[in-house]
Structures are given as C-alpha cells and as structure tokens.
Amino acid sequence: MAAVRVLLGVMVLLFCLAEVSSDFNIEEEISEAAPYAPLQLIVRDGNRRLMQDIDCGGLCKQRCSLHSRPNVCTRACGTCCVRCKCVPPGTSGNREMCGTCYTDMTTHGNKTKCP
C-alpha cells in the first residue's frame, strides 16, 4: 500500500513538472517567433489564451483629436476598442481595417457606434 502511494506521488510530481516545462517552451517559442513585436502578449484568466494588450486610451485620444465632440468620441472609441481590440489608424475613416466587429457595432438608435 505504501508503494502505491509513493508511486502515485511520483506520478503527480512528474505531471506538474511536465506542465511547467511545456508553459516555458510556449513562452520561449513566442519570444523567438516575434522578438520585434511592439504589442505585449499577456495571458488572461484561466483559459490561458494569449490576447493583445493595447493602449485604448492613447489610441482613442489620437483618433478623436480632431472630432467636434472629443469626449463623446473618446468614450465610444474606448468601448469599441475594448470589445474589438482594435482602433483604426488616422482621425477618421479606415473603419474597415478593424473588421466587422468595429464596423457593425451600433447604438440603441441603430447608428454606427465606433468612430
């Protein structure tokens, strides 16, 4: 009975070491694949997916700098940025570069939400 417990303990220990080792290999592959990538990849929650962490505040401030109502524009842009993980370049237009998430989002009045 004691031998079974020792064997079970060794198996759990080996499993834990294998998990840590595979996580290290994944991080190493990512850093080798894109050492020049300007966007930081982070792991969120327990689902272990890699997501881009972008500066929505700075990008939206630049996007809405020439808008007639910059506060309203920045608030809407921030919502779209958090949901779609994208802000189009420039101060207007180019909405298609962020895909359907950005172009199809509408307000309750059925107007386009994202600037």
TrEMBL record:
<feature type="signal peptide">
    <location>
        <begin position="1"/>
        <end position="22"/>
    </location>
</feature>
<protein>
    <recommendedName>
        <fullName>Snakin-2</fullName>
    </recommendedName>
</protein>
<dbReference type="Pfam" id="PF02704">
    <property type="entry name" value="GASA"/>
</dbReference>
<keyword id="KW-0732">Signal</keyword>
<comment type="similarity">
    <text>Belongs to the GASA family.</text>
</comment>
<dbReference type="InterPro" id="IPR003854">
    <property type="entry name" value="GASA"/>
</dbReference>
